[in-house]
Amino acid sequence: MNNPIHRRSFFKKSGALLSAFSIDSLFNQVHADEWNDISIQYKNWSAKELAKNEDYWAVIQQGYSASSSPVVILNNGGVSPSPIVVQQAVARFNELSNQGPSYYMWRILDQGRENLRDALANLAGSDAEEIAINRNATEALVTIIYGLDLKQGDEVIGSTQDYPNMMQAWKQRAQREGIVYKQLTFNFPIENDEEIVDAYRSAITPKTKIMHLTHVINWNGQIMPVKKIARMAHEYGLEVIIDGAHSYGLLDFKIPDLEGDYFGTSLHKYLSAPIGSGMLWVKKDKISKIWPLTCAGDPLSNDIRKFENLGTRSFPIEQGIGEALNFHNAIGTKRKEERIRYLKNYWAERTMQIPDIKIHTSFKSEYSCALAGVSLEGKTPGELSDVLMQQFKIHTTSISLENIQCVRVSPHVYTKISDLDRLVDALGKISKS
Ligand SMILES: Cc1ncc(COP(=O)(O)O)c(C=O)c1O
To answer: From the CB of 161, is ligand 1 less than 6 Å away?
Structure first.
């Protein structure tokens, strides 16, 4: 598996295959010329101005097969479609792998992983040696939750609005090992950082060891002041885990700047990478103390690759991440963030005018971006999302969580204004009926 000389000569000899797994090949073949033109045309536009320019975004929309789906897809926060080039890359890598997986997948595609690590680190603003590639946010975060040394009585602070998989993982540790898992509950939307930071601070005791935070709350889209909470937690000597499932590839930030110790994300949400791809970031000096979830020759090594010992899995999916990064980087994170926030505000502001409608998400840019919740008096979230689907062919997701009851709507860069008009129109009709 590790024969670099053989690999190099293989690359040289096989031009056709080289283009099949070179991580920037397809994007350049398909989009580079056209996108280069628009990037020159709009180069002096601010991200906020460009967010409203339908000519620019029409070019991006054409890159997605999902933009012509007969059902309007407004649950991109759940899982997002990949652009066509990403789908094609995965299909090519799959075809190649099936010519002989133990050779083409394990020996050839495998060579793309270090380039990919560099590219992911580049977007994360981190050292590549802090990036592990895996299959989803659950795998990334549970690696940390189960990998930390904690003893009976040690306390972990999270919230009832964190993601269920992570809550269950902490509860399993509580049940099995006697750690204490404390959960705060917030009444979102909240537009006051100090209120949130103070809530976390007031839960800390001398036994607290870990703070588990969610960067963007999946239930209603609230963006949390994770950096402020992490800074405060560090003053008390705690370690901070950040669930960034909805932030990486959407919000314009660098992972180390959040000041957490661990960050896990899916890549198949706003990055639009192949479905079944995720990433773990671990601060360099913390790597050696985390036990890997699967196994490693030296489980306490400080090599981030110890978290990638996942057994046989799809390298075509993994290598397809490269094309998703090319697509994303050609737009730019800030432009993508502003466009998607604009789309959210577009439908939510119009919907607010409808009688008996409530929006469950802040309109302030620091507290929300892609995801927002809507409800209609007299209908449960399940009823409302069912009517949207059955009568108007609009797919959303319903949220029923203690104090958050709404239909969650989450557009993406491929969402058209006409799709959102259809949503607003549908909500108006449902409200009148
Ligand atoms: C906040 C949050 N964390 C983690 C996850 C889990 O992501 P995955 O299914 O990729 O493991 C989700 C999924 O929606 C989520 O919303």
So the answer is: no
pLDDT at 103 over 80: yes
CA neighbor of 146 nearest in space, from 168, 162, 170, 165: 170
Write out pLDDT tens, residues 344-384.
999 999 999 999 999 999 999 999 999 999 999 999 999 99
pLDDT digits (tens, 9 = 90+) for 50-84: 999 999 999 999 999 999 999 999 999 999 999 99
Classified as helix, coil or strand, 88 is helix
Beta carbon of 410 within 6 Å of any ligand 1 atom: no
Looking at ligand 1, which residue's alpha carbon is closest to its atom 10? 136
Residue 391 identity: Q
- What's the CA gap between 124 and 134, in Å, rounded? 15
10 Å CB burial of residue 325 (0-12, 13-18, 19+) is: buried
DSSP-derived 3-state class of residue 113 = helix
59: Cβ–Cβ under 8 A, 6 or more apart, which residues? 34, 35, 38
